[in-house]
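> call design_seq(struct)
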């Protein structure tokens, strides 16, 4: 299966998926005001079994 399908299946955060695959995040709140830590991204990736 494709990565995005697996990620959604295991409940990976939508913005983590977009960040990982290189999509542009256009949501102003998410793009400008939300700061993500590398640990958050690691936790999201680890959801995929």
């Amino acid at each position: 299966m494709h990565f995005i399908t697996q990620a959604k299946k295991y409940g990976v955060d939508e913005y983590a998926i977009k960040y990982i695959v290189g999509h542009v995040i256009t949501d102003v709140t998410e793009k400008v005001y939300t700061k993500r830590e590398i640990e958050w991204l690691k936790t999201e990736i680890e959801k995929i079994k």
